[in-house]
Amino acid sequence: MTRMHPHSFHGKHRLLMPCQAMLLCSLACFCAIPLSAQPPTGRTAWWREAGFGMFIHWGVYSREGRGEWILYQEHIPLAEYRLLAEKFQPREYRPAEWVALAKEAGMKYMVITTRHHDGFCLYDSRVSDFTAQKTGPRRDLIAEFAEACHREGMRLGFYYSLQDWRFPGVLPHGGPLSREILEPMVQQAHQQVRELLTRYGKVDILWFDGLWPADPEAWRSKELCAMARKLQPEILINDRAGLPEDFSTPENVVAAQGRPWESCFTMNRTWGYAPYDRNYKPVHEIIRLLASCASQRGNLLLNVSPDGDGRIPVEQVETLRRVGQWLKQYGKAIYGAGPSPVIAPNLGFSGRVGNKVYLFLQRWPGSTLPFAWCGSRVQSARLLADGRTAHVEQKDDRVWIRGLPDYPPDPYMNVLELEFDGEPKGTVPAYR
Ligand code: GLC
Q: Are residues 118 and 86 in the same domain?
């Protein structure tokens, strides 16, 4: 069985209660995700092994520093918003540096907002006059970004909001929208997606958002995705045009699915630049999210919010660098990992890559680490922090790893590598 429950769409995840999310995880681990460690094949293979990507929310709103929803939130008149677009002149925009940072952080792909709900195109759309080319920047910011990615062999993703708040009659959200109101916005979306997929070379990911009303028929989503695949046969498409397509996108929550999935997270609590939002997740929390996703065969798409000049805030840069350093040492436990049948649930997550099981230790056990319900022989154990081997004692399904340091050597997350002399097996179905 490869799928237990129907595809979950974006909107639904927001309504998940923590207990429901946990249930979904357990279901996915029990039944939906085959526990075989075969590396994925086909079009989605690179993405399923990628583990970690960079999300970028950037636009006119970034200069204002109050998040990406200001047009709606503050009901800014369009003429006034256009003036803000004139003032948006990112003089420090050097996409090659963003790509270098993503690489340093251990990220394998990047997804940038080519257009958010405010309708502002960071690229030179010919079917809109609200674009970077025709306002403050006077240049195609996406062309520069795409070029930087291609030059560095970085996988390129385009976020595109179907919703465009500037169209008459679409705000405020809530009520039903007539065909007359919707149709011009839908037409524009189809034309702009075509532009994005024909003018910037190879695009690896199309990341839709803003399907309001949530009616894929009204948006002609089937036709839209078919066009995208025709133009870019290898492209991966997310589920937010209201169709399952290639992967699901739980937002600010880790919720494993019985199909490819990616959790997107903010680093503080805002997607767009918001300098006064100081609720930054510490490095160990980002690493915990990464391990939690990877051990359930999901990706983490972590957001950065450059300011109006094109600078990624220093707190975000620092965190990404530290995560990158951690990944240099521990990446083998993250990239290409999937769920493990051998678990130590009271200590942390466990992931599997081939014949190896990685225990991500959220709680340090002291010098002896006991676990049980193990159905195959543990050959050796190694602490990835310093490469030291530990002594393995096994009696039937019970295992003791001895000779570990008394206190945790890595300040962020310690990982113990267990090597099995064949396929790692549990004696009971894993639960998480
Ligand atoms: C939501 C928000 C949006 C953000 C996105 C990221 O749809 O409307 O501001 O871009 O989620 O997943």
A: yes
DSSP E strands, 266-343:
299-304, 338-339
CATH code for the domain of 373:
2.60.40.1180
Distances (CA, A) of 90 to 60, 201, 359: 10, 24, 44
Whether 252 is in the pocket of ligand 1, judged by its Cβ within 6 Å, is no
Cα(209) to centroid of ligand 1, in Å? 7
pLDDT tens per residue across all 432 residues of the chain? 233 332 333 333 333 333 333 333 333 333 334 444 566 778 999 999 999 999 999 999 999 999 999 999 999 999 999 999 999 999 999 999 999 999 999 999 999 999 999 999 999 999 999 999 999 999 999 999 999 999 999 999 999 999 999 999 999 888 788 999 999 999 999 999 999 999 999 999 999 999 999 999 999 999 999 999 999 999 999 999 999 999 999 999 999 999 999 999 999 999 999 999 999 999 999 999 999 999 999 999 999 999 999 999 999 999 999 999 999 999 999 999 999 999 998 999 999 999 999 999 999 999 999 999 999 999 999 999 999 999 999 999 999 999 999 999 999 999 999 999 999 999 976 554
Contacts of 53 (CB under 8 A, 6+ apart): 107, 108, 109, 110, 111, 155, 157, 262, 299, 300, 301, 302
Decide which of 288, 316, 333 is a domain's last residue: 333
* DSSP state at residue 107: -
Of all protein residues, whose CA lies closest to atom 5 belonging to ligand 1?
209
Ligand 1 pocket residue status of 251, Cβ below 6 Å: yes
- pTM for the structure as a whole: 0.91
Looking at the fold, whether 252 and 140 belong to one and the same domain comes out as: yes
Q: Is 398 in a helix, a strand, or coil?
A: strand
Residues 349 and 327 in one domain: no
